[in-house]
Design brief:
Largest sheet: 8 strands, antiparallel, barrel
Radius of gyration: 17 Å
Low-confidence stretches: 1-19
Shape: elongated
Oligomer: single chain
Mean pLDDT: 91
Structural class: mainly beta
Number of domains: 1
Helix content: under 10%
CATH superfamily: Lipid/polyisoprenoid-binding, YceI-like
Distance between the termini: 29 Å
Strand order of the largest sheet: 1-3-4-6-8-9-10-11
Length: 194
């Protein structure tokens, strides 16, 4: 579910320092993973992911200040390596992808813990329901990409969790068949927008 997040954002936004103009970074669709883990009957956690991901964020690499984060996931793009399960997750029992095709994550800024770690608190919207989501974010690297587009690129890792029941996905929560808690996993590269 998630991102999203997005989500995202490298983001240790340091609110101090010179207030320079932020640059806009676009998620690299070839190098972004938004995935989730959810318990199945207590035996294992099922890993799923979304393949339709877009968005970006504003960021100042010098001050480490994070601005607007906007991430969109296509709910119907969920995949867990099982066609029957994926169809069920797209259904009204879970994501209700026909009625609510977009999952979104938005945030405005972040809170630094160190030069490379911090939190990004924003809003996740699933099935038309908006709930707060806080992501623990690690800034992995900022550098010009060594080939291809050659643009300045930011790499991040982010983790968070939600209760799916908070978004109206109560199916199999009461009997414990499917866990309520969903772990969110984000690995992403974002490049300087034109």
């Amino acid at each position: 579910m998630i991102r999203t997040a997005t989500l995202i954002a490298a983001l240790t936004a340091l609110p101090f320092g010179a207030h320079a103009e932020m640059a806009r970074y676009t998620l690299d669709r070839d190098h972004v993973v938004v995935a989730f883990l959810v318990d199945h009957l207590g035996y294992e956690k099922v890993l799923g992911r979304f393949t339709d991901i877009s968005g970006g964020f504003s960021f100042d690499p010098e001050s480490r200040e994070l601005g607007l984060v906007e991430v969109r996931l296509g709910a119907a793009s969920v995949q867990s390596d099982n066609d029957a399960r994926d169809g069920h997750v797209r259904s009204k029992d879970f994501l209700n992808a026909d009625e609510f095709p977009d999952i979104t994550f938005t945030a405005e800024g972040g809170t630094p813990d160190s030069a490379t770690t911090g939190t990004v608190a924003g809003t996740l919207t699933v099935r038309g329901v908006s709930q707060p989501l806080t992501l623990d974010v690690t800034l992995n690297k900022i550098a010009d990409y060594p080939f291809g587009h050659g643009k300045e690129t930011i790499g991040i890792s982010a983790r968070g969790s939600i209760l799916r029941s908070g978004f109206g996905m109560d199916y199999a929560v009461a009997n414990g068949f499917v866990g309520d808690s969903v772990d969110i996993i984000i690995e992403a590269e974002a490049y300087l927008a034109d």
